[in-house]
């Protein structure tokens, strides 16, 4: 940028500056990859985020508060179960879901996580594996935000290895009795419904459990360094009794929860780009205003290199996400391809947020600026729905044909 251009951007309004920086950062013209309908939906979500979420999210993060009051409005706007075509659900495309995820996480990963847990995991499990009666009973109310759901898979001793699940469900007449513990379960303390995965004599099965069922207890995990504008819990299931009608009839084995996890992982590859974009824009805007040695630091070579690297990585990540979304909408997406986006985009996004913080200098650790908050959140995002290591091994097995999850032991 020429010095005069810097001054022009610096003198514009905040909204004008954001548009200008965003336009300049679209180095490959990727906006043209999306249809008018897709962009209109994205802009609608963006407006909601800018008005209802962004001004308050730093305070929610500081106070470890999830804005439950927004849930109904998000449902009314069609933001819950965005990509599901079951009764009462919005039925939008995977690409539209991805664009919405990007906008929600540009404010905070905790908000995007709510959309993911509600729509991809809890609603997704019922959509993919539920009976027609279960779909009709639960999904419309969940899509409207009248009922909040959670998804109980991860356990204290079974994170990356769900095959070691210890929660069990046993038959007792016409009922099932579920016992065990789940950990890091989003929304569990405010949810009315929990999709619980448990081991049975016939393998892993899923159950829709009302959270007011005797024996169901959700305890909020706190304090946390990340995802503070979200809720994660430990669930205890002490002889929780549910009728057979609570069982998800289509879910057999670990393919049941993994299908839902893949939907959530797909949303993550888009969402993390929102955190990266917001961090880039914050750093670039700051660099245009901050003067040292008689010039804006945006004019320094090292700062420009940092900004260039960030913009390039965001553009590459968006190409990965858009291509993956098109494959998903066409019904041609391989789960291995989801691992590509989840691993690469999350890894790049956290690096972008950290680098953006360096441009802010000491001010970067202030809650006034978003990059450090995004970086903290991404430490959790890179861990849940499959760690970096798990997705690396998924891709390694694909490339070599040799699964390395259970290497042979010596002796």
TrEMBL record:
Chain ranges of the Acyl-CoA dehydrogenase/oxidase C-terminal domain: 258-399
Domain named Acyl-CoA dehydrogenase/oxidase N-terminal: residues: 36-146
Pathways involved: Amino-acid metabolism; tryptophan metabolism; Amino-acid metabolism; lysine degradation
Protein name as catalogued: glutaryl-CoA dehydrogenase (ETF)
Keyword Methyltransferase annotated: no
Catalytic activity: glutaryl-CoA + oxidized [electron-transfer flavoprotein] + 2 H(+) = (2E)-butenoyl-CoA + reduced [electron-transfer flavoprotein] + CO2
Keywords carried by this UniProt record: FAD, Flavoprotein, Oxidoreductase, Transit peptide
Source organism of this protein record: Brevibacterium pityocampae
